[in-house]
Fold:
Amino acid sequence: MDNLENDILELFDDEAGGNEQARTTSSEQPRQTRHRRAPRASTRRSEYSGTSSDVDMDTDASEASDASAADEWGPDLMGDQRDRRHLASLPEIERERILAERQEIRDVQNEQRELRNKLRAGVRVSERRAPASDDSQTFSGLKRARMARRSPSAHVVEPATLAMANTICLARNQLEQWVFRPFFARAVRGALVRIVTRTRDSSGEHNQYRMMLVVGVSKGQPYHINKTLTDSHLVLRFGANERPYSMETISNSPLRADELAAWEAACEADGARGVSADDVRRKAEDLEQVREYKLTEKEITEMVAERQKLRQVASGSRVGDV
Structure:
């Protein structure tokens, strides 16, 4: 019975405490530490072994507090535009950690509501009304669900569809337009491209288009992308393999279904992370902000100087001028 009471106290003390830190500490402490709450058990036992109206007195106020905490987030666990911009600016690992914490907060609140509904329906947490084994059965599902959420394997990721992937696929012409702009590295990181590569199989060497993820920008040998001279190369990932590519072989055409399927197969084979629907939504918002970016006079001057410097370097290397 003590374990059952401790589980109930854990759920309701989380609600009354009103802060996430208490929840985290409770989940990490050894079982013997949780038994330190035992002196309060008699009070809680009397409260929850009474009628459903007794439960209402303890829970109605905190229920309203629960709702206000999570109602600021939408179904995607993000708030207003300011919150979305902040999350988009964070490293991916940090952003995923925050979203996972928000999901746990929301799920715990849903558990608490379900628990209250069971209590109001007449479920008694008392030895006088039902054996301990029956009470344990009542709450075991909630306990298992809470523990499963703390396991990384329980997280379900919605993969991006072809239509979604094409919303963040950058064409060669767009890359040429942005290559000297100050936001270029930020704009391309996390976007997709369709690039032609040389592939060898039983029939020999041939060109093959592949969908790849941009993971960064590097500097290298100058070359032309359309008519623009640049020394910027995109670091692209296919499966778990990453390497820099020049941009002149990036396609202006949209991605195809077989290219998305090949990307997903490569990621699965290599144990690499794919592209999720959430990734696409965040990147699409980022690209929308980039397209609305207004250059300052200083930035324009710096862009012109960078192009002129590159022309001089390339001319000495016999790459040619524009």
Summary: Strands lie at 192-201, 204-225, 228-238, 241-245. Confidence is low (pLDDT under 50) at residues 15-59, 125-141. Residues 239 and 265 are 8 Å apart (CA to CA). The chain is about 55% helix and 15% strand.
